[in-house]
């Protein structure tokens, strides 16, 4: 993992190829997740740090520990039990947790994230053992400063993930259980982009819940009241953001799984003020746009000429449309208003029209077409809309299974040589079309990406790889770029640069029958490329605050890699408690406060 790091950047505060200071000894050291090595402590370390007699005699390697942990993982009876095992391992030994994930990435990703994490979140209160992260109560905004103040000094925190738990992973309102999605997202940042796990804070805004099961449940741990809306809600959000930026001015803020009334509104409010990101709005848009960039190269089309039909115009659909509009504007020098004219959005009532006015969300308004353009035409039939628009690209975020019918797909194929079709709804049973059908109906000509993993499809003796629009190939690298450059803002040009960096790694650029996106198995290398693109664009836009960022591409990538955290045991250097940093005293990160609270 860390073998490709150079010593020229060892002086950087985040560099990981030098010894790690440690002021803990004995059982205190064994209970600090990010310093603990368990049976891998060397004989010398056991003597020096007071561990003699506290560990079995055989000193083992990290590889041997990972092998044992994998056997324990496999012995768990179901996916939720495996998820719980992984949580327990992370609380004991962070390096081993991430090493195990890296060794079995494809198998374990669905366990620590969607879909199994959704089950863990919905059972948060009944499975609760130990608190982790920050819980902010909408009824006590005056306590936000106190709640956030104990996580270190201004230089100690790089990333904060915050959720209000209203729209979790397709399972809806999970109230205070939203803390687990913040924790899971941070784990993916570490796993996929080397964000230091003890330099992060997971946060949940507890604003109540509209989930009746929780309101009736004696064991539910959150506020037992209906969700707060309006001014009181906005005050908590604003207080949180202002306090977070005051305490941790370098922290990049990631919004996660906010509900439809708030996700886009909050993002629009704070994007001009702080470096922030919403994965549901922007991450989905970026990864989809990257697949589009790759598809356009294969189809020999230009971004400035495309016609896009979005089927499903909720948070994800409008988020994707926004990223496409930004890309059209950047690539063609068109105004954003003109770029929007190349995108048609369809939702439950049909094609979005200006006469719908108050029935449209703020995110939908820019995509509403003039009614006179569609006078006498059917706006509630996807087939008729396809006939009229003649799209090059058809994207589904509707959660309406099988809605891309044979008639619709064949109609689209009449007007473009390589139809670009992305059925993105999750889970698999909600996909707008089956990949095998799409290849059959287009005689193998369609270019495709899906929202869930699919096996390759064989059609008339040719094998086609189906790319998965997995956000985890995208948002970690964007965050890494923002963290390392100390970006002031996350502006649209930075996201377009990140997207193009991802698209440049598409296997389809070498073989048109291969995937439009790289596989998640290569995600750390992907993240380096994305981070480099974000940093270079941020420098161009004069948004960086970090000094000494290299200009040359090769040097920049070395500089990035030197500061990425790896699942490797570092040599421990003993320091006295009175002169130790918070990190050396085991006080850093989400578990650093060493809460003794159980149950």
Describe the structure.
InterPro entries: Aminoacid_DH-like_N_sf, Malic_enzyme_CS, Malic_N_dom, Malic_N_dom_sf, Malic_NAD-bd, Malic_OxRdtase, NAD(P)-bd_dom_sf. Pfam families: malic, Malic_M. This is Malic enzyme. The chain has 599 residues and is an alpha/beta fold. Among the domains are: 116-259, Rossmann fold (3-Layer(aba) Sandwich); 282-473 and 507-518, NAD(P)-binding Rossmann-like Domain (Rossmann fold, 3-Layer(aba) Sandwich), CATH 3.40.50.720. It is 40% helix and 10% strand. The protein has 23 helices and 16 strands. The strands form four sheets. It has a seven-stranded mixed β-sheet, sandwiched between helices. Strands 2-4-3-5-6 form a five-stranded parallel β-sheet, with helices on both faces. Strands 1-16 form a two-stranded parallel sheet. Strand 13 (457-459) and strand 14 (462-464) form a beta hairpin. The longest helix is centred in the middle third of the chain and has 21 residues, at 279-299. Residues 593-599 have low confidence and may be disordered.
């Amino acid at each position: 993992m860390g073998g490709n790091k150079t010593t020229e950047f060892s002086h950087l505060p985040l560099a990981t190829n030098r010894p790690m200071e440690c002021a803990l000894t004995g059982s205190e050291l064994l209970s600090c997740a990010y310093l603990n090595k368990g049976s891998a402590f060397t004989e010398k370390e056991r003597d020096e740090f007071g561990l003699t007699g506290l560990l079995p005699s055989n000193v083992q390697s990290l590889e041997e520990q990972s092998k044992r942990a994998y056997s324990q993982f496999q012995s768990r009876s179901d996916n939720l039990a495996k998820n719980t095992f992984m949580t327990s391992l992370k609380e004991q030994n962070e390096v081993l947790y991430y090493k195990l994930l890296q060794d079995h990435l494809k198998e374990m990703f669905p366990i620590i994230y969607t879909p199994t994490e959704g089950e863990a979140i919905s059972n948060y209160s009944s499975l609760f053992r130990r608190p982790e992260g920050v819980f902010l109560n909408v009824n006590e905004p005056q306590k936000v400063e106190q709640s956030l103040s104990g996580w270190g000094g201004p230089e100690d925190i790089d990333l904060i993930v915050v959720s209000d738990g209203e729209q979790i992973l397709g399972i809806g309102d999970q109230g205070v259980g939203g803390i687990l999605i913040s924790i899971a997202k941070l784990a993916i940042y570490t796993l996929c982009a080397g964000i230091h796990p003890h330099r992060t804070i997971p946060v949940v805004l507890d604003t109540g819940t509209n989930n009746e099961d929780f309101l009736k449940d004696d064991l539910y741990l959150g506020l037992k009241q209906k969700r707060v809306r309006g001014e009181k809600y906005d005050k908590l959000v604003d207080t949180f953001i202002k306090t977070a930026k005051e305490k941790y001015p370098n922290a990049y803020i990631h919004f996660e799984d906010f509900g439809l009334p708030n996700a886009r509104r909050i993002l629009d409010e704070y994007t001009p003020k702080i470096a922030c990101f919403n994965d549901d709005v922007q991450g989905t848009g970026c990864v989809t746009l990257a697949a589009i960039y790759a598809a356009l190269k294969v189809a020999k089309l230009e971004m400035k000429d495309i016609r896009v039909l979005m089927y499903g115009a909720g948070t994800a659909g409008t988020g994707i449309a926004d990223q496409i509009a930004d890309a059209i504007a950047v690539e063609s020098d068109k105004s954003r208003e003109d770029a929007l004219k190349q995108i048609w959005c369809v939702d439950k009532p049909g094609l979005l029209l200006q006469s719908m006015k108050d029935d449209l969300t703020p995110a939908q308004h820019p995509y509403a077409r003039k009614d006179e353009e569609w006078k006498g035409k059917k706006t509630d039939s996807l087939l008729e809309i396809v006939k009229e628009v003649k799209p090059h690209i058809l994207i589904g975020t509707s959660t309406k299974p099988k809605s891309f019918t044979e008639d619709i797909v064949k109609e689209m194929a009449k007007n473009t040589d390589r139809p670009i079709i992305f059925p993105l709804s999750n889970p698999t049973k909600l996909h707008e079309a089956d990949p095998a059908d799409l290849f059959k109906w287009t005689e193998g000509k369609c270019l495709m990406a899906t929202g869930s993993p699919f096996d390759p499809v064989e059609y008339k003796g040719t094998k086609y790889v189906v790319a998965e629009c997995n956000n985890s190939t995208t948002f970690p690298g964007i965050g890494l770029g923002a963290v390392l450059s100390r970006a002031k803002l996350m502006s649209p040009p930075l996201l377009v640069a990140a997207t193009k960096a991802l698209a440049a790694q598409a296997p389809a650029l070498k073989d048109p029958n291969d995937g439009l996106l790289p596989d998640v198995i290569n995600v750390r290398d992907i993240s380096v490329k994305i981070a480099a693109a974000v940093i270079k664009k941020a420098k161009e836009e004069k948004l960086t605050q970090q000094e000494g960022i290299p200009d040359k591409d090769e040097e920049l990538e070395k500089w990035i890699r030197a500061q990425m955290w790896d699942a490797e045991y570092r040599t421990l250097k003993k320091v006295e408690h009175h002169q130790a940093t918070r990190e050396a005293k085991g006080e850093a990160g989400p578990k650093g406060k060493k809460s003794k609270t159980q149950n």
